[in-house]
Write a structure and sequence with these properties.
Structural class: alpha+beta
Strand content: 25-35%
């Protein structure tokens, strides 16, 4: 296997067999890590899946009722976040828009599904968000969510068979500015109101994902309205059993030109 796409075309049973055949971990010193999604893979997001997220969206929005309704609706909010080639990984910058002014990270458990709609693993996601753009009008969600440096994933995938209960994982967020901690928060996936397989089933109902998909499942940590990211901040997200994702903050398109010019198969 030479790509995540090849692995994620396999059934869960066959994928596990391939992982087991790989044996012991190889030395990683000096290696450049790539996103854990490539080829035709995509990253999607689920929104308003934690009570804290519902409250924060209602605080910032001119149309509060839409968030209250979707939190309890049968149909979840799902939206595309990034194709594989737009994803950044641990150590690479995440972005804030020049036309926003109020941006925050959103630490999220990310579910990895194969082309058959089976959950095969988990990773850590930073779903960067412009609160000011979404707050003006919920119809601006695509602009608030899809932009250069808007999606970061941890470099690895923890196989589903190694995680005893993905609905009992602690999540923490720390933001540092000039070396000083300016925000921290914690939550647990126990507070996630949606079932993971249900989210995947809704996502796959009208769509094919021939090279797999990663679905970020929403955030339970949102800073208060008086906090906004600034260029140079360093964001660290940790999820129990899965690992840590750390990214510095950059502004605008230019710091992410490498995503558009390097190999679109994900071989960065």
């Amino acid at each position: 296997m030479n790509s995540f796409a090849e692995l994620l075309r396999l059934s869960l049973e066959d994928l596990r067999a391939e992982v087991d055949k790989a044996g012991e971990a190889l030395p990683v010193e000096g290696l450049k890590f790539l996103p854990p999604i490539d080829g035709r893979g995509e990253v999607w997001c689920a929104g308003v899946t934690y009570e804290r997220s519902r409250g924060a969206r209602m605080e910032e929005s001119s149309e509060q009722s839409v968030y209250d309704k979707v939190y309890t609706a049968d149909r979840p909010e799902l939206f595309q976040k990034a194709p594989a080639w737009r994803v950044v990984v641990d150590g690479e910058p995440v972005g804030i828009r020049t036309d926003s002014g109020h941006d925050v990270p959103e630490p999220e458990l990310a579910v990895v599904a194969n082309s058959h709609g089976e959950i095969v693993g988990f990773t850590v996601c930073n779903d960067m968000s412009s609160r000011s753009i979404e707050g003006v009008n919920p119809l601006y969600v695509p602009q608030a969510k899809l932009f250069a440096g808007g999606c970061a994933l941890a470099s690895g995938i923890r196989p589903v068979w190694e995680v005893a209960d993905p609905k009992k994982l602690g999540i923490s967020l720390v933001i540092r500015r000039g070396g000083d901690e300016v925000f921290s928060g914690t939550t647990s996936t126990e507070k996630l109101v949606r079932e993971l397989q249900d989210l995947i089933d809704v996502l796959f109902l009208p769509n094919d994902f021939p090279d797999g998909v990663i679905l970020a499942t929403g955030t339970g940590i949102v800073p208060e309205l008086d906090f906004a990211l600034a260029e140079g901040d360093v964001i660290t997200i940790t999820i129990d059993e899965l690992g840590t994702l750390t990214n510095p903050v950059a502004t605008g398109r230019d710091p992410f030109a490498f995503l558009a010019t390097e190999n679109l198969e994900g071989l960065r």
